[in-house]
Design goal:
Blueprint: E1 40-42, E2 45-46, H1 52-62, E3 64-67, H2 73-85, H3 122-133, H4 135-141, H5 144-154, E4 159-161, E5 166-170, E6 194-199, E7 210-213, H6 217-230, H7 236-239, H8 257-263, E8 271-273, E9 281-284, E10 290-292, E11 303-312
Parallel strand pairs: 1-8, 2-3
Antiparallel strand pairs: 3-9, 4-11, 5-11, 6-9, 6-11, 7-8, 7-10
Length: about 325
């Protein structure tokens, strides 16, 4: 039986089930302990046929909208298979398994196969560079189902994607994405952009997918005002840099979900997660605080996802992001 043959784990809701009564698995970030069950919750899924007014209302209220089946599932798995086929000779994948499943080789060191944000080996760096410029990946970013939904949802006549779209793989046990909001990485452009997080394959709540800090849009705006106030005397290029001296060395606000939530207690709610399926897309605003859970997937699946940023045509873009990603660029 492959990972694709596994449907849903007991107690984990799929679209249409009662997500409010299902028990969440234990979740944690890179550092710190497991988040208390009382401090976690399920995200609200949205059917793509939901009336537009309701979708926009949810986005305004929640800071995100998790759209189920936005892209045909098989197209997403074709992309997953293509990506991991490029790493099949590296020892990353479990022997005798298909790149389409993307199962990690438990005899390998996950830190040796880190992706974006980690310290991968030189061979992996070159593969990551090639994967981001790959015509098949660039075509996937222009998928008509994704692009037509964005225009429908946003009301834009034409959308523009920043070239610095990123493919992030996260092996079980390796370092995941830290706590942040997107605006501080794109400070040199307008703050009216839409992030699309696309899981490329099924990704359970403890499988390294994104977790959103409930009611954190206002917190993100407050933190950005504080950062900009501190940095107002810096030269412009340093001021807009997410790695300036007032930011964390790796660009993230924290790697400890328990500690960060406690620090901002009373301003935010729970850490929310979803049982993401291939074809789902989560859209969120520039201020929504989020991170990735530690990948502790019981099936050994490597989390693969792509994060994309869209502006309305004619908006002021952050030109630093108008080039294809390369390691250490």
């Amino acid at each position: 039986m492959t990972a694709l043959d596994v449907l849903s784990s007991p107690g984990i809701p799929t679209f249409g089930s009662d997500a409010t009564s299902a028990v969440l698995p234990s979740l944690r970030s890179n550092q710190g302990g497991y988040v208390d069950q009382s401090a976690t919750g399920w995200m609200r899924p949205t059917n793509p046929d939901t009336p537009l007014e309701e979708m926009r209302k949810r986005f305004q209220e929640d800071g995100y909208i998790w759209v189920k089946h936005a892209i045909p599932k098989e197209d997403v798995y074709d992309m997953r298979e293509h990506y991991f086929s490029q790493f099949s000779h590296t020892g990353m994948l479990r022997p005798t398994t298909s790149p389409r499943d993307g199962i990690f080789n438990p005899s390998s060191d996950p830190n040796a196969h880190e992706g974006i944000g980690g310290l991968p080996e030189e061979t992996t760096k070159q593969l990551l560079n090639a994967a981001h410029a790959d015509p098949i990946y660039r075509a996937f970013l222009a998928h008509p189902s994704l692009r037509s939904f964005i225009r429908h949802f946003s009301g834009w006549k034409q959308e523009v994607i920043v070239d610095r779209a990123m493919l992030r793989h996260n092996c079980p046990g390796s370092k995941s994405t830290g706590i942040h909001y997107d605006q501080y990485f794109l400070r040199d452009g307008e703050d009216e952009f839409l992030t699309a997080w696309v899981p490329i394959g099924d990704c359970g709540p403890a499988g390294g997918g994104l977790t959103y800090l409930e009611n954190s849009t206002s917190l993100g705006k407050d933190l950005e005002r504080e950062f900009l106030k501190k940095a107002e005397h810096l030269p412009e290029q340093e001021r807009i840099d997410a790695f300036n001296k007032f930011m964390a060395s790796d660009g993230f606000m924290s790697h400890d979900a328990v500690e960060f939530r406690e620090e901002h207690k009373g301003k935010v709610g729970r850490w929310l997660v979803g049982n993401y399926e291939a074809g789902d897309v989560v859209f969120h605003n520039p201020w929504m605080v989020h991170a990735a859970t530690k990948n502790e997937d019981t099936l050994g699946r490597i989390r693969l996802a792509s994060d994309l940023r869209f502006y309305e045509e004619g908006a002021k873009l952050d030109k630093r992001w108008m080039k294809v990603w390369r390691h250490d660029d």
